[in-house]
Structure formats: structure tokens, C-alpha cells
Amino acid sequence: MRKPKFAGKGRKRPIRQAASEQENLDAQEPIHLTGDPWQAPKVSVIVPVMNERRTLRRVIREAFRVHPHTEVIVVINGSTDGSLDIARRSGAKVLVYDRPLGHDVGRSIGAREAMGDILLFIDADMVIPAAKLRVFVDAVARGMDVALNDYSGPVDLPVVHGVVLAKHALNTLLGRPDLAGASMTAIPHAISRRALSAFGCSALSVPPLAHTMAIRHGLKVERVVPVNVGKLNPVRLKRERTNSLEPLIVGDHLEAIHWWLKHTDFRGGYEDGFRQRGMVR
Amino acid sequence: MKKKRRSTKRAVRPSARRRTVRPSRSRKLRPKTGATKRRKPAARTGTYADYAAGANDGAAWRGSQPGTPEMLREAVLESWKRRFRDTAGRRKADWRLTLQRGKHYAAGFMQGSGVRAAICPVPLQMKASAVVYAGENETALFQTLSQLEVLPLHEIVIVAGQPTESLFALARGFGNAVVVVLPDRVDPDIGRALGAKLTGADTVLFVDGEQPVGSDQLARFLWECDGKLDVVLNDLGSRMGTFRRRKAIERLHEFLNASLKREDLKINSLSVLPFALSRQALDSLGAGALSVPVKAHALAILKGLRIGTGGFVRGGALPDYADSRWKKVAGDHAEAWREALGVRGNRMHFADSTRNRGLLGEWVT
Q1: For residue range B186-202, what is the model confidence (pLDDT) as tens digits?
Q2: How far apart are CA B81 and CA A238, in angstroms?
Q3: How many CB atoms lie within 10 A of CB A37?
Q4: Angstrom distance (rounded) from CA B296 to CA B282
Q5: For residues A208 and A121, what is the distance between their CA atoms, to the nearest angstrom?
Q6: In whole angstroms, what is the distance from residue B84 CA to residue A48 CA?
Q7: How many Å apart are CA A234 and CA A253, to the nearest integer?
Q8: Chain A contact present for B244, CB below 8 A
């Protein structure tokens, strides 16, 4: 297979796609056809943004197409690249913070403002077609509480990335090895209003914590379809080298385990077999 | 293949002429490389020297007394230990060489003395013992004990719950065995913890009574523990294959190690037999800690004990999710993390310094 040409450093998308983006900009069509303005939205799509001008417009466009009654909530934090203008022109609800809120805090802020019955979480740096996003929303509409991206990361390696390991291990420990490496850490995922009230908006900032709470509360947490975010995600080699997110996310998983142990017995709810511990001290 | 050889040839000798020199040269080269390969183990002469020395020592030993196999074992170990100390030199940490040399020495010793016995001579500096929990399988227990018998062990502690007469007699039949009989069957982990409490040795080897392991493989655990490591684990990590194919329980092992910042331990865990512990480890963990091996594993890391591996040993199958033993190991991991989170804090030193949590208001607890 021939590789597409990239324009310079750090660019992952072929140049001709950037040109089509330009055409769309010229068209300036209103893209927020959300049906009856007096009706409460059915779906809230939450998009945290930090300097993602390049893809933001297309991301919002796809988000609006997920459902006829959709609100898109863009949480801009610490953006200096004009993302704000793009978001304002797009018809989305925009929440602005001057400084970076920190990883995934935007999800909590966005969820707090959401009015929909179904909340869909996506990232601003990755354009996922509405048809794919719709699958997650539909799953929740049919009764699921947390509809996860069925993506486990690269696992055909002897030693996997620390985050991939953490996701698998947490699911296993929670008695859900069937979820493999699926996690609320990864987008896209959709949740029900019921799930949101179970774990609260704040926990969404630490996605493995919300994930753990959902499972602990007996909510219906399932994998839906795979969206290969590893492939879509621009490779952030520089960030990986200087300021890797790995320790933060591993820590999130430990925070989740901590919460879980606080809410179960000392063995996490697992039986002890027939161990006569009193025999040896 | 041939092409490759040519190009390297050219790089080495740019002046060499193509047509005349190369084909004949390359053909000549082949046996030459073979010869160097065969010459490679330089230790060979060394081990032969060990054999000769053993034969000498053996003859001298036989001259002084009538020899029984038990006495032979003791004599070989003693004199090999001395010889090893004097001749080990810089490669004294090389396990394979040490084992090979020891075997040659023992073979020589038996040749010289005319007395024979199965023996695995490991030059240990400290007193070692083994702990076995006897299951119901007598054949497996017999095989296990037979392998342990040839190791330089001070004693073999065999813990048995409600043993049958024959099993008891079998265990008692081994010379340096100490048999602990319990009125009821106990959990194997509890049995081993009890056994650990009863031995005062400097190195304690824990083996599975249901899964016989060769003495050479076990010897390495003793060797690595002898003044080097505090905790010697079965190196499952050396044969772990890809992540996808691994069992759920191994993911827990691996993440426990990673969360304690010991990624180097891979999927190895104290919950997998065999393993060896030093006196230092036993005293600082306490024998009771071995009741929950995964928790003891986490504790050993938290206490900064020296943890390493003693080679790969194929053991019993690890419990899988559908398995009845699953709940036990999963719960053990919960206990291990509870311990670790208690010592290292909510995020176990993986701090979150970037999130503005003050903005978030209340958290559901």
C-alpha cells in the first residue's frame, strides 16, 4: 500500500484532505440543525479542546450529525490557537477557560452543563465519522449505561504500554475480564444519564474511577464497536518523550482501585477459600 | 547466502581478486568457523581440571574410611565448596558454569572413590532447607522429595494435613525430612507458611509437592538466594509470549509489579512456585505473610528486599477466570494493593499534579 504524502513534521493527514477543509470553510453553511429549539436535546456531545484548531471544525460537524436532537458542548481550556473562534462559529455551546484544566477535566465541566439523556465523549483532535459515533449513542438508547470503544490497544507484543496493561488489569480485578482493555479512558464512549448520576460529573475527570464506579454500581457496561483510536491519534512523539501521560493514567487506575477497595471488603469482595489464617501468625 | 559471504569478504579484503580467490576461499572458510565454534567453551579445560581434582579428592577420601552414599554426599559438598571458593575467580556468579563444574567434580569424586550417589553439588555458603506442602498425590510427592534429596539441604520440612499411613511413611523415609502432621487438611499456602516458621535455615526453598521439578532447576534458586537475593522467583517472564495470549491472572501479576515500579519483574510473582526466600526476607516479612503470597510479594517490594529470578520452571497451570481458584488469587491481589496503597498513598506515587480538581466541586463517594 502506498503511503499518503504528509506535509512536513508532525502532520498525519494527507495534504489533499486539508484542501477539502478549506472548501468547507468557504461554504460556511450552518451546521447545527438540531430540530425544534424548544425541545430538550436527546444527546449531548462533549468535546474538550486544547489547541486543536486543525480538526475541531470537522469534529464538531460530525458531532452534530449523531442525532437530530443534539447539543455539542465544547470545553475550551488553555487554547491560544484560535480554536475558540472555530467553536463559536460552529453553533456549539462553548465553555472557555483561560488556563489548561488538566487531562480530562474538560469532560466533567462539559458533563455538568449537558442536558441530554445520553452523553457522548469525544476528543477534538480526532475526526470520527458520525455513523461510527452513532453506534455508541444507539447502544445507550437501547438500555446500555456505559458504551465503550472496543479498543484494547496493541496487545500482540510481549510487553505492552503501561496504560494498556493498567486497563486490562483493572477490568480483570473488577471481575470483568470480558471487557479486555476497553475503558472510559478511551474515546469515544457514551453514557446514560443514569450512569452520570451514579458516579457524578467530577469522577469523569479520572475516567478509570468513573469506569470502576459504574461497574461497582452494577451498571450495564459493555464494549460496543472498535474505533482504532491508536491509528487515528496523531503520534505525539515529542510529548511521549518529554511529558508522557503514562504515569498520570497509571495513577488514575490506582486511584480507581483505591476507591473500589474502600467500597468492598478487604479482599475486594472475593472469597478467601478455606484458608485458616489463624494457624500462622 | 553466498552473496552475503562475498560482500563481507570484499569489505575485509578490498584488494582480493574476484574470480580466482573467492569461491575456493569461501569453501575453505566454512570448516574454519566450525572449528572456532567448537573451541568456544573455554571452560572445558577448567571443568576437566575439576574432574581430575575430584578424582584425587575422592580417592583420598575413600582411603580414609568406608563410604556410604550419604557420607559421600557430605564429603563431595564439603570439598567442592572449598575448591570452588579457591578457584571460582571472576566467573563465580555464572550459574551454568558453576553447576557444570560442580557436576564434573562430583563425577570425578565418585570415580576416584568408587562410591556412587545422585548428587547436585551447589557450593552454598549458608544453611538451606526446603518446605513442601504434601498434597494427596503420593507419586508426585515421592518424585519431589527424591529431587530435593540430592540437593545440599539441611532439612526438608514436609507439611501434611491428614496424611494417609503410606504417605506419612513415604515422607519419613527420606533422611533429612521433618514431617509435620496436621489433624486437618489445610490450604497449601497456610501449610507452607507453617513450614517456613518451623525452619531456622538461612535460605528456604518452597516447592510444590504436586509438581516435581528437577534438582538442577531447584538448585539455582538456592544458589541465587545464597547471599545474593532475598526473594528468588520463578522466571515466568522469560517465557511469557505476547500479552494477548497471556492469562488474566498474569495481567494482575504484571500490573502489580508495574504499579510498584518494578516492571523488571514482568509477570513474576511469589504466588508461583517454586521460590526461595532468605532469612532476611523471612524475618522482615514474617512467616505469616506467606499465607497470602501475593501480598507477601507486594510487601517484599515495599520493604526494598532484593528480588530476582532463579530461572524458568514449568509448574502447574495458573488459575484462569473460570477456575475455582480464581477468587482466591484475585482477592489476594486486592489485599496486595490494599497494602501497597496504604504504604504509598492513593496513587502509589503516580501523582496527579496537572488536574485542576478544585474546579470540580463535589465527588460522589
Answers
A1: 999 999 999 999 999 99
A2: 55
A3: 7
A4: 10
A5: 14
A6: 67
A7: 24
A8: yes
> Which chain A residues are closer than 8 Å to B360 by Cβ?
105, 108-109, 201-202, 205
Q: Decide: A163 and A247 in contact? Cβ < 8 Å.
A: no
Q: HSE, CB side, 13 Å, CA atoms: give it for residue A185.
A: 27
SS3 at position B209: coil
Q: Which residue has the higher pLDDT, B315 or A80?
A: A80
Q: Does A165 touch chain B (CB under 8 A)?
A: yes
Smallest CA-to-CA distance from B267 within B284, B286, B247 is with B247
ipTM of the assembly? 0.85
Residue stretches of chain A with pLDDT short of 50: 1-31
pLDDT value of position B122? 92
Q: How many CB atoms lie within 10 A of CB B155?
A: 18
Torsions phi, psi for B146 (to 5 deg): -60, -35
Nearest to residue A192, comparing CAs of A258, A265, A133, A143? Answer: A143
Interface of A with B in 77-136 (CB under 8 A): 99-105, 108-109
Q: Give residues with Cβ within 8 angstroms of B156, minimum separation 6.
A: B129, B130, B131, B132, B145, B148, B149, B174, B176, B177, B178
Distances (CA, A) of A183 to A142, A151, A225: 20, 8, 13
Asked if A109 contacts A202 with a C-beta cutoff of 8 angstroms, the reply is no
The more confidently predicted of residues A62 and B44 is: A62
pLDDT of residue A242: 59
Cα torsion A165, A167, A172, A177: sign: negative
With 90 as the cut, is the pLDDT of residue B229 above it?
yes
pLDDT digits (tens, 9 = 90+) for B235-264: 999 999 999 999 999 999 999 999 999 999
Residue partners of B80: CB distance under 8 A and separation at least 6: B54, B102, B105, B106, B109, B121, B123
Say if B70 is an interface residue toward chain A (CB within 8 Å). no
Interface test with B, best of A152, A176, A209, A280 (most B CBs within 10 A): A280
Residue B322: predicted pLDDT: 80
Q: By the CB < 8 Å criterion, does A261 face chain B? A: yes
- Which of A77, A267, A271 is the best substitution to test chain B (most B C-beta atoms within 10 A)? A267
The pTM score is 0.85
Tens of pLDDT along B266-281?
999 999 999 999 999 9
Contacts of A48 (CB under 8 A, 6+ apart): A75, A77, A101, A104, A105, A106, A107, A109, A110, A123, A124
Using CB atoms, pick whichever of A156, A205, A270 lies closest to residue B334. A270
Which range among A269-278, B138-147, B181-190 shows the weakest confidence by mean pLDDT?
A: A269-278
pLDDT at B10 over 50: no
Over the stretch B97-107, which tens digit does the pLDDT of each residue have? Answer: 999 999 999 99
User: Do A272 and B328 lie within an 8 Å CB cutoff?
Assistant: yes
Which residue in the set A102, A165, A177 is minimally distant from B354, CB to CB? A102
